[in-house]
Amino acid sequence: GAQATEVETVVIGSGPGGYVAAIRAAELGQKVTLIESGEIGGVCLNVGCIPSKALINIGHHYRDEMTEQPFGLHATGVSLDWAATQDWKQKKVVERLTGGVAMLLKKHHVDIVRGTASFNDNEQINVIEGDNHELFQFKNCIIATGSRPVQIPGFEFANRIVDSTGALSLPAVPKHLIVIGGGVIGSELGGLYLNLGAKVTIIEGLDHVLNGFDAELIKPVLDDFKAQGGEIYTSAKAKSAVQTDNGVAVTFEADGKEQTVTGDYLLVSVGRRPNTDELGLNNTNVKLDEHGLIQVDDRMATTAAHIYAIGDVTAGPALAHKASFQAKIAAAAISGDPQARDLHYSLPAVAYTNYELATTGETPESIKEKNLDAKAYKFPFAANGRALAMNAGTGFIRLISDNQSKALIGAQIVGPGASDLISELSLAIENGLTTEDISLTIHPHPTLGEAIMDAAELADGLPIHI
Ligand code: FAD
């Protein structure tokens, strides 16, 4: 057989899991080989987090310009050159960032091998690129092959039925976008096209959209979505999709009756499945769970010696920052520093809906389920000067603190800046800070962050602004 190249550490996949693992392992003294079958940066940088946020940003600008504002600014002659928007997203955002990652990998002397990897056994992978293949014998391996959209029978991706990748590069802003699956991705992209002037219909199987965020939190998002003319059907079952030359008709059952809605595109966003089925894992001791996710311990070690797994191929929420955090644990573990962390305590999650949603740590439901002696305190953005100055006084910050220790154990935000504000609260939780620690920290005025201090003062029983 062909001679295998001996390498120290192999990382498979270059998403926010793989590229971070490669750089950190190199920093800790490993010689790293990174295998990538697609684009450097993975889903997140190429067709996920980054391009979606770029378009969502444009959606906000467009909506602001097109809506009558209460502060006397009248915009006329606003138009959207969608081709230019797409070009900007690709060249100035995605390619700049992925180019930056490629440079960082080079700086850390990471060897990049293009091709599709699969395992021959517990110590060897085969990498296929076109007609060529190459064998690598490794000391350590980190699997970071990510996930792909789930396809459902009868709704296969083609032409006018698109996955999230297709929805980020539509040839034109749709007149009517139908979305099956109102999770975070479906709701973010639905909100984006609503802002760009499309009619949007979301069809969701559960009795609520944005699973993972509670009803009180998502209410401002839903109210806004509906006020803009968006339609949401919950407890609905999509039955069939029929494509025509210029559209697609979707039949679904909701409220006990069958209905058909016609749009120009259908986005199917019903979840993602791990890329573990074509890796040859049956040739190794790596064990999968019933969802095809790789079983790992708290050091990200699989059931096979020297093979680790991180990111969307492991259990837990499919989030880029989870993948990157696990990457650092795995890189430390293979470098002899068995640093293991409890990832799931204050792992924040954000939805970039029209009012941003963010959560970290415990929630009102989780404290009930766990029977914790804790209480929630809410401070509205309507009482925050900066929010009013931004014409963004909708939403609130909710802190959850332990009644005995007063430690912050959870927080949720809906409203302006939620995605950035949540980090302060994760920091507080990770470090066992009390609400008094937060209220005794000077927050600059006027800022959205003051609402965190105000919520903490409320929890201390010494509120000023409410
Ligand atoms: P991926 O990013 O999926 O990367 C895996 C890489 O492995 C890919 O490049 C793939 O080509 C490669 N690969 C696969 N198999 C092989 C093989 N056999 N050989 C070689 N290479 C292989 N998360 C957030 O935290 N915030 C967000 O705002 C957010 N927005 C999102 C928006 C959209 C539209 C989507 C689809 C996802 C979003 N996510 C977001 C989720 C986020 O993108 C993923 O959680 C993240 O990319 C997972 O990282 P990963 O490193 O595990 O895998």
Automatic annotation (TrEMBL):
Disulfide bridges in this chain: 44-49
GO annotation terms (biological process):
2-oxoglutarate metabolic process
What does this protein need as cofactor?
FAD
Q: How is the cofactor bound?
A: Binds 1 FAD per subunit.
Q: Where is the Pyridine nucleotide-disulphide oxidoreductase dimerisation domain?
A: 348-455
Keyword set includes RNA-binding: no
Tell me which residues make up the FAD/NAD(P)-binding domain: 9-327
The record's keywords, sorted A to Z, are: Disulfide bond, FAD, Flavoprotein, NAD, Nucleotide-binding, Oxidoreductase, Redox-active center
Catalytic activity reported:
N(6)-[(R)-dihydrolipoyl]-L-lysyl-[protein] + NAD(+) = N(6)-[(R)-lipoyl]-L-lysyl-[protein] + NADH + H(+)
What Gene Ontology molecular function terms does this protein carry?
dihydrolipoyl dehydrogenase (NADH) activity; flavin adenine dinucleotide binding
UniProt-listed Gene3D superfamilies: 3.30.390.30, FAD/NAD(P)-binding domain
Miscellaneous notes for this chain? The active site is a redox-active disulfide bond.
* Family the entry assigns: Belongs to the class-I pyridine nucleotide-disulfide oxidoreductase family.
Show the NCBIfam families listed in the entry: lipoamide_DH
Q: What is this protein called?
A: Dihydrolipoyl dehydrogenase
Q: What is the lineage of its organism?
A: Bacteria, Bacillati, Bacillota, Bacilli, Lactobacillales
